[in-house]
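Bit of a strange request maybe. I'm writing a small parser for structure token strings and I need a real example to test against, not something I typed by hand. Could someone generate the tokens for this chain?
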Amino acid sequence: MRNSSGRNKTKIPPHLLKSALVSTTAAGLTLLLLSSTIAPRHYSTGGIAAVQAFPSSLSLRIPPSSPRATTSAATPTTAATTAASKTLQLAAKRQTNPFATLVGDMASSLFPSSKLDGASNDRVITKVADVPSWESVRLELEQKLTTEEKAFRENVERGIGRASPLNKVRLYEEGVKEEDVRVVFYRDSASWCPYCQKVWLCLEEKRIPYRIEKINMSCYGSKPNSFIRLNPSGTIPVAKIDGKIYNQSNEIIFALEREFPTHKALIPNDGGGDTFQALMRLERNLFSAWLFWLTSNAGDRAKAGFKDVLQQVEAELASSPNGDFFLGADVSVIDMLFAPFLERLVASLLFFKGFTIRVVPGTNTPYPAINRWFDAMEGLESYQLTKGDYYSHCWDLPPQLGGCTYEEGGEPFEKAINGELRLGSRSGNQGGSWEYPLEAHNGGVEPDWGWCGDAAAARREAVERLTYNHHALVKFATRGAGRKGMPPYSAVLSDPNAVGEDAVQGGVDACLRLVSLALLNDGVGEEEENSMEKVAQAVVDEGGVDYADGVVKSLVYLRDRVGVPRDMRLPAARELRARLNWAIGKILKRIEP
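Reply from user aminoacidic:
Good idea to test on real output. This should exercise your parser:
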């Protein structure tokens, strides 16, 4: 498989085009947009996730309901049987509610929302006038931020300090001049592309100053003419080093090693010899075996072939001299080549096949050396920066690969990753995995990111992203109650031309302010509960049921599009998703007591 170009668009399954409720939107904000499509199990889903950059600083994304079961607001009985929690069971009772599971069907419609008007919004705004303003939320946030957190935006702008996916330039430290930067790195806007991640890792680990140009993958947006002139094939990544263009990931990596000899070496002085070459071949063999199993219906044969190659990887790491990386104690190019695909195969094979590789601490596993390697990689700031969560990968892979196939063993993990059910739960009575109280390691599904700090730090990170660009964020969220743009992209939920429903902005805005305050207060006390109840009452009683549905659709749309790493890190994303569900639940209970 060559570098990710996204040039071959996959066809949208006909059943998605027939239902307005399954139509989508997803481009957007610098809040990640990730979305999933609703497809029956026999489909090899061609488009599940969508992300589109927008000039702001919070990225968001969303996955709709489980691809294993077709659901629709038009079939409330089916929806009720698959509802993920009490909140969603309430939603499923309503014929007009578009959410079949906790992750929800796409809320946007092919048709305009004709029942909403500005008068309803005005009445709601009047009733919620005493909800603290965004300025008040920001002031409270500032009082709780650490010194490092307060410097975040300035450091992002200047390209110094700890790296962020929001960087447009990386200088690393004071004294490095931007005019001396020799590298321009063209990577994908959504942080989906594994080939881009390889190069990104190497640049950061070697601490080579660079500028960033973000380019859409064709499955979720168009590429600018300026980029096509630079690289007519349209593939990414691309690097311009001292004016010379490199358009293959490995070519870029070796050029960086050659052209920056005074920076940290990622290739042994002797070139690595036969071992280095053998490991490069093993990485390609692993990729091929993973892809064959993930995208085919070969079943046990594909699984057996993959396990054979994975065992070779385990053996290589187990025999690595004096360390947990492939070549020993120090990270190398070999680790950078393996990292994007090991990361994605761990997530996708759990989700689609129920095959466990990465485990939480203290759990027995047939792959201890691979788990130690992950632990070692997660100690690197370069990897912490670029690492995605399971949810993001499981929705961004199908539109890149042309589809993934399901096996029965994956369903419990799929539901836990999607936020629908806690692992081991057979119904929504125990709540969804995106509801409080949040379980450590998502109930054993995905190891926590301990390097991000405690839960309070995660909540501050989420609120910082919400408050920084709240005007654009609210407008973006209302796409959930708006209508789909045309023509669609092959990643079904990517819709940069979607039209939001302005008539629900007041209710959405008030809910997000209260969500932010609840996050800042490290939980929900009596004051937050009463305030959210009051807003829910205003949304339903003053706005009406259609207005309330529009607000719920907007919050779900936003919740499902929180992306990692583009928008925020996993602990912050988990906190935000759960707190949005708290607000959604309050409104749904008011509609359907």
